[in-house]
Write a structure and sequence with these properties.
Blueprint lengths: L2 H30 L14 E3 L19 E16 L2 E8 L8 E4 L3 E8 L10 E2 L19 E7 L4 E6 L5 H6 L3 E7 L9 E10 L9 E3 L3 H6 L4 E4 L12 E4 L3 E10 L4 E6 L3 E5 L6 E5 L1 E4 L3 E8 L4 E7 L3 H6 L2 E7 L39 H15 L1 H4 L17 H5 L1 H10 L1 E7 L2 E7 L6 H12 L11 H8 L1
Parallel strand pairs: 1-2, 2-5, 3-11, 4-9, 10-14, 13-21
Antiparallel strand pairs: 2-3, 5-7, 6-8, 8-9, 10-12, 14-19, 15-18, 15-20, 16-17, 16-19, 20-21, 22-23
Helix pairs in contact: 5-9, 8-9, 8-10, 9-10
Length: 484
């Protein structure tokens, strides 16, 4: 035998041995996995009515150790509600909220699903639950005209966290109007105990007017087809998870977030600023990932996110496709109370001046946007509130309180009240360097915003008229004079 043939034979023999080894390992893995057998009708014990909750609340964990017949009653409602301050939208909802009611079941349960469509609805609806094994996820069996109720049943065959949504044509429009929610199929052994559970679903919305344009805004199919949303929101409205609606926690507690993405179009880059996810149930399934900074949640998908909060403060929830957070509404907060934990996070310890060799200040172009129509004082304040929430609230907070050691408050601000011209120049040209506000030192960069003189007058009039400031009315003429 030639040397070449000998080498080939040895290699073939090696591959054969490797193949046998892999096959043996696969057989061993297969035999070690116990297949799940769905309980029969005779094994299903009793009957219960499911507890449903509105976001961000989650139903209590399931304590029973056996499958049951679980009756779910869910009503479709078409209703006008706030999408942002001064802006309304006609939402199509499951249970009256966006997202729809949270549904919690146990692996193996027999679900008897009752879908009612309110008599005031204009169009028929149905439901596609991604937890269903069967045609259309239940949509085929649940087409429900206004004033009717349909009933179908399914067995919860796979544990995990699943989206449900309307699948009536045009499907995209029904979803875009807010028709989605989450159903959790708890594993038989349950989930590990945590201190707090919350329900958060992202969605993208398409309105005839631009972000913040006031009044009742209709759905815009052209923007939806182009995938150009005006709003990207957590739980259906700007500020749904901020201010007095912020999620609450205490230092040392464990949190579980049930996160979904209704879409209809965008993928979410879900992130909590100032936290690392200890465990992520990838795409809502049984595979686990650990020490995760940002997790992708696809449109029509979900994730279960768990972490412990170790220090007090405000943790900011965002879609890290970051303009969505700070300019389209995808922003929330977790308010963590407790004593400082300096060894984990010290806060600012010192500050010195740093000037790199050759460094120089940079400024934005000075072109002025076109002026808007003349507004009354009341209209200017109303517009200023929208400008503030679109451009300023991410740093200075929706209640004007600022962020300690980072962004100064604009509520009861001695810095702002002392000098109106200085306030105008700050908004118009930006600000860099150390300032004193209400007895505290701040040293950060405020960029020049692309605001018209009318917008500058409006946002300052809003700020001066609220949160304990001195009530100064700022006009476009005052802005023009300050900038001369």
């Amino acid at each position: 035998m030639s040397r070449f043939n000998l080498v080939v034979c040895v290699r073939l023999l090696g591959f054969s041995v490797l193949g046998l080894a892999l096959t043996a390992c696969q057989r061993q893995d297969q035999t070690s996995v116990k297949a799940w057998v769905a309980p029969t009708l005779a094994q299903i014990q009793g009957e219960e009515v499911a507890v449903l909750t509105h976001p961000p609340a989650v139903p209590p964990s399931i304590k029973r150790k056996h499958p049951t017949k679980l009756i779910v009653n869910l009503e479709v409602q078409e209703k006008v509600a706030r999408i942002a301050d001064g802006v309304d939208y006609t939402f199509w909802t499951f249970g009256g909220t966006v997202p729809g009611s949270f549904i919690r079941v146990r692996h193996g349960d027999l679900i008897e699903f009752h879908l009612a469509n309110h008599p005031d609805s204009k169009v028929p609806h149905n439901i596609d639950l991604h937890a269903v094994t069967g045609p259309g996820g239940g949509a085929v069996s649940s087409f429900t005209p206004p004033g009717k109720e349909t009933v179908f049943s399914f067995q919860a065959m796979n544990p995990g966290l699943y989206i449900y949504h309307c699948a009536t044509a045009p499907v995209g429009m029904h979803i875009a109007n807010g028709m989605y929610g989450l159903i959790l199929v708890e594993p038989e052994e349950g989930l590990p105990t945590v201190d707090r559970e919350y329900y958060v679903v992202q969605g993208d919305f398409y309105t005839r007017g631009a972000y913040g344009d006031p009044g009742l805004q209709p759905f815009d199919m052209d923007k939806a087809l182009k995938e150009q949303p005006d709003y990207v929101l957590f739980n259906g409205s700007v500020g749904a998870l901020t201010g007095d609606k912020s999620l609450a926690a205490k230092k040392g507690e464990t949190i579980r977030l049930y996160v979904g993405n209704g879409g209809p179009n965008l993928v979410s880059s879900f992130h909590v600023i100032g936290e690392i996810f200890d465990t992520v149930h990838i795409e809502g399934g049984t595979a686990l990932n650990h020490n995760v900074q940002t997790t992708l949640v696809p449109a029509g998908g979900a994730a279960i996110i768990e972490f412990k909060v170790d220090v007090p403060g405000e943790l900011i929830i965002v879609d890290h496709s970051i303009f969505r957070a700070f300019n389209k509404g995808a922003l929330g907060k977790i308010d963590v109370q407790g004593s400082e934990e300096a060894i984990v996070y010290s806060g600012k310890q010192r500050e010195t001046v740093y000037l790199a060799e050759g460094s120089t200040s940079q400024s934005m172009p000075e072109e002025e946007p076109l002026e808007k129509l003349v507004l009354t004082a009341a209209q200017r304040i109303e517009q200023g509130e929208r400008v503030y929430k679109s451009n300023c609230a991410a740093c200075h907070m929706p209640d004007g309180s600022g962020i300690p050691n980072a962004f100064p408050p604009v509520a009861a601000s001695d810095y702002m009240n002392a000098d109106v011209k200085r306030a105008i120049l700050t908004v118009a040209k930006g600000l860099e360097g150390e300032i004193q506000v209400n007895g505290k030192t701040y040293n950060n960069v405020m960029p020049r915003l692309n605001l018209s003189q009318d917008d500058i007058a409006s946002v300052l009039s809003f700020l001066y008229s609220t949160w304990g400031n001195n009530g100064t009315e700022v006009t476009p003429e005052m802005v023009r004079n300050a900038l001369q």
